[in-house]
Amino acid sequence: MPIIDPAVALRDLVLRLCLASQPKEQSKLSPKWKRPYPVKRVIRPSTYELEDLDGKVGPRTWHASKLCRYYV
Q1: Cβ-count burial of 48 within 10 angstroms (0-12 exposed, 13-18 middle, 19+ buried)?
Q2: How many domains does the chain have?
Q3: H/E/C letters for each residue in the chain?
Q4: Which among 4, 8, 15, 27 is placed 20 to 30 Å from 39, CA to CA?
Q5: Is residue 36 situated within a structural domain?
Q6: How far is CA 3 from CA 29, 39, 44, 64, in A?
Q7: How far apart are CA 21 and CA 67, in angstroms?
Q8: Is there a contact between 33 and 16 (Cβ–Cβ < 8 Å)?
Q9: Contact call for residues 37 and 52 (beta carbons, < 8 A)
Q10: Residue 4 belongs to some domain of the structure
């Protein structure tokens, strides 16, 4: 279930949709969500910058419709 409300805070863990980042590399049985990423920065209420668990910032921003909150 993608995030509907933009109530994601900094350092929250989210999963990102694989189909949005690599549409050609997906098959029918591929996982739809990619590993948890912490939110590095909130650009706008629905736009987020993610980082790896290693601390490296990703090359692009992500819209809330392409993210799903990760509960630990």
Answers
A1: buried
A2: 1
A3: CCCCCCCCCCCCEEEEEHHHHCHHHCCCCCCCEEEEEEEEEEEECCEEEEECCCCCEEEEEEEHHHEEECCC
A4: 27
A5: yes
A6: 23, 13, 14, 6
A7: 12
A8: yes
A9: yes
A10: no
* Domain encompassing residue 40: 13-69
Does residue 8 sit within a domain? no
17 pLDDT tier (thresholds 50, 70, 90): confident
Whichever domain contains 25, its CATH number is 2.30.30.140
Q: For residues 19 and 62, is the Cβ–Cβ distance under 8 A?
A: no
The rounded distance, in Å, linking the Cα atoms of 22 and 42 is: 23
Q: What is the pTM of this model?
A: 0.77
- Kindly report, residue by residue over 21-54, the tens digit of the pLDDT: 566 666 778 888 889 999 999 998 889 999 998 8
The structure tokens 């049985």 sit at 29
Q: Kindly tell me the burial class for residue 13, based on how many C-beta atoms sit within 10 Å of its own C-beta (0-12, 13-18, 19 or more).
A: middle
